[in-house]
Specification:
This is Zn(2)-C6 fungal-type domain-containing protein. One of its GO terms (molecular function) is DNA-binding transcription factor activity, RNA polymerase II-specific. InterPro entries: AtrR-like, XnlR_reg_dom, Zn2-C6_fun-type_DNA-bd_sf, Zn2Cys6_DnaBD. Keywords: Metal-binding, Nucleus. With about 600 residues, this protein is an all-alpha fold. It has 4 domains: about 1-70, CD2-Gal4; about 165-215, no CATH class; about 215-230 and about 270-420, no CATH class; about 430-595, no CATH class. The protein is built from 20 helices and 2 strands. It has helices spanning about 40-45, 55-60, 75-95, 100-115, 135-140, 150-155, 175-185, 205, 235-250, 280-285, 290-305, 320-330, 345-360, 360-380, 390-410, 435-455, 470-480, 500-535, 545-565, 575-590, and strands at about 155-160, 165-170. Strands 1-2 form a two-stranded antiparallel ribbon. α14 runs antiparallel to α15, α16 runs antiparallel to α17 and α18 packs parallel to α20 (about 575-590). It is globular. The N and C termini lie far apart (about 80 Å).
Length: about 600
């Protein structure tokens, strides 16, 4: 028997001989040989024992390699030919639509690289599940006008009261309201409006604000003072810092969660320092650490001021604005790298950003958080070159970065892949780290929702357009909730006596609403179209489970918002985040009647 190739060389162990065509089929129960021989026994046409290694390879001390099993299926020839004809037709159509071969190959590669799904999950919103063809056909019903993807995925340039245009992306509440204004402006002429209603009652004033939004960023900041070093007495300062720590950090150690932010040591009072004779840069650099306390005083003064009294005038600024101006003067210009930047400066900028958020100066807060994050990168904090206190300050900056990114629909400052810093951990003389750690993990999901679900800065390939399948984001959020430690879980009635825990779950619900909101808005548009054009009010079954989940999250946020008001009854105005979560939940519940 000839075993050699035509060139006289024996086949390698990775090659195999073809199947002997003269061999007749034998039933599996009557076989005297194994079904598949190893490669060495196959090329030598000898009997293989089927072991690993087999007897022949073991005796001759050869590597025993079996072929990779290939699953075979048999289909009718007519079906195979039909599939081939379809592939040829699709290729011709693709060539006509995209004549450029390189662009065509790029799209084919991108589609081939996209995974079909992830591992199964007990959740009905597992990322492995996709929308059925029936849902797609219902979505493309002739009574609903399909919108171009670019129209759905583009943020908007909205003007502030002074006419300055600022870009707000898809996740921004102002952009969502602008979409609603556009929709209402299109359907109100078709609706029957009561003629006796005033302009405020018929919604004209609301619709006239299309393309505009309100922000305090258009107001100039208070002028900086010349002598910003004076602080209250140690006793008064300790009392104020204690109040601030209770409101925004860890409840003075009373909250089981340990709080969801850590801005620094708010229980340490600085030693009294004599004021300098002048306020030159050289003198102020020695008092730079006092900027942290002025920023803290600005926050607590703002929290103890009602919304009507929060803004002062140009001639007489409010007390919180005066404290913020002192902090700004002491911390100096963050872009001036000749001054020695420390993790203490990061904590100060973080507190200043928190104050600006409460003052509805989100663009200014965005810039302060960016400066704080870049100082962290310059100091190597993102690579772990810091102690536990610095670690918690960094993660607080990270949380604010992801929050502002979600709030304004803009890309976040640092990618998760660039961070090598461990998550917060429990440490002596520090509050528990559970709350901040869970907040960081939730903020990571927030970054995914903004960047991938809304395609603001996607790192995953999209199949199906904007937010057509928010299932992966929903699944990530549900997994986050299921893995929370007991101290962060809500009671059976859906509430908690820990304000930080309530606020954490409000953000979780807000992200659920945000992930589903494009589908929610689409359902509203279809409902309006049916009522006004087709003159029918039949409910739509498209994405029913998603819409129910969105409404349930909105209802939970309303209850949690009321609970926070009860827990913080001494505070004169709620936090900006509380107002944002409650407002978006209210909008969803108002629109619920339409769908």
């Amino acid at each position: 028997m000839q075993l050699d190739n035509s060139d006289g060389r024996r086949p390698s162990s990775t090659q195999r001989l073809p199947v002997n065509p003269r061999r007749h089929k034998v039933a599996p129960e009557q076989r005297k040989r194994v079904a598949t021989a190893c490669n060495n026994c196959n090329v030598r046409r000898v009997k293989c024992s089927g072991g690993n290694p087999c007897g022949q390879c073991s005796a001759s001390n050869r590597e025993c390699v079996y072929p990779t099993p290939v699953e075979k299926v048999s289909v009718p020839r007519t079906e195979l030919e039909e599939l081939r004809r379809k592939v040829d037709a699709y290729e011709r159509a693709l060539q006509e639509v995209i004549p450029d071969p390189s662009r065509r190959q790029e799209l084919i590669t991108q589609a081939a690289a996209t995974p079909e799904g992830l591992s199964p999950s007990p959740s009905p919103f597992s990322p492995a599940q996709s929308f059925s063809p029936e849902s797609s056909r219902r979505l493309a019903a002739p009574s609903v006008k399909a919108e171009p993807e670019d129209e759905q995925t583009t943020g908007r340039l909205l003007q502030d009261p002074d006419g300055t245009a600022r870009y707000l992306g898809e996740t921004s509440g102002a952009t969502f309201l602008d979409h609603l204004k556009e929709l209402l402006g299109a359907v109100l002429p078709l609706a029957q409006v009561e003629p006796q209603l005033s302009q405020d009652q018929d919604g004209t004033a609301f619709l006239n604000s299309l393309g505009r939004y309100y922000t305090a960023d258009s107001r100039p900041l208070v002028e900086r003072e010349e002598m910003p070093t004076s602080l209250p007495s140690n006793e008064d300062l300790a009392t104020l810092l204690c109040k601030l720590r209770y409101l925004i950090q860890d409840g003075n150690g009373e909250w089981p969660s340990g709080g969801i932010y850590w801005f620094g040591d708010l229980n340490v009072v600085p030693s009294q320092i004599a004021s300098p004779p002048s306020a030159s840069d050289a003198d102020m650099n020695e008092y730079r650490h006092l900027a942290f306390y002025h920023a803290a005083l600005a926050n607590i003064t703002r929290a103890n001021t009602s919304s009507q009294e929060v803004h002062g005038s140009a001639s007489t600024p409010s007390l919180s604005e005066a404290y913020f101006a002192r902090a700004a003067l002491l911390v100096g210009n963050p872009l001036d790298i000749t001054r020695c930047c420390t993790i203490g400066d990061v904590a100060t900028l973080c507190l200043m950003a928190a104050y600006l958020i409460e003052m509805n100066r989100r663009d200014a807060a965005y810039m302060h958080v960016a400066a704080a994050m870049h100082i962290c990168i310059m100091l190597g904090v993102h690579r772990g070159l810091v102690d536990e206190r610095g670690k918690r300050v960094f993660w607080t900056v990270y949380v604010l970065d992801r929050w502002l990114s979600c709030l304004m629909g803009r890309p976040h400052i640092i990618m998760d892949d660039a961070i090598r810093l461990q998550l917060p951990a429990d440490a002596p003389s520090m509050p528990p780290a559970a709350g901040l750690k869970a907040h960081v993990e939730l903020s990571r999901i927030s970054g995914y929702v903004v960047c991938n679900t809304y395609r603001v800065a996607p790192w995953e390939a999209s199949r199906g357009g904007l937010a057509k399948q928010p299932d992966k984001a929903i699944w990530m959020l549900q997994q986050w909730q299921l893995t929370l430690p007991p101290r962060l879980q809500l009671s059976p009635d859906g509430l908690s006596n820990d304000p930080a825990c309530c606020l954490l779950h409000m953000r979780y619900n807000m992200l659920l609403i945000l992930a589903i909101r494009p589908l929610f808005l689409g359902a509203v548009k279809r409902s309006v179209a049916r009522r006004l054009v087709v003159q029918t009010a039949e409910p739509s079954s498209t994405h029913t489970e998603h819409l129910k989940l969105c409404i349930a999250a909105a209802r939970r946020n309303i209850r949690l918002g009321r609970q926070l008001t009860t827990l913080n009854i001494s505070r004169k105005s709620p936090l900006h985040a509380e107002q944002h979560y409650s407002f978006n939940a209210t909008v969803c519940l108002i629109l619920e009647d339409l769908i």
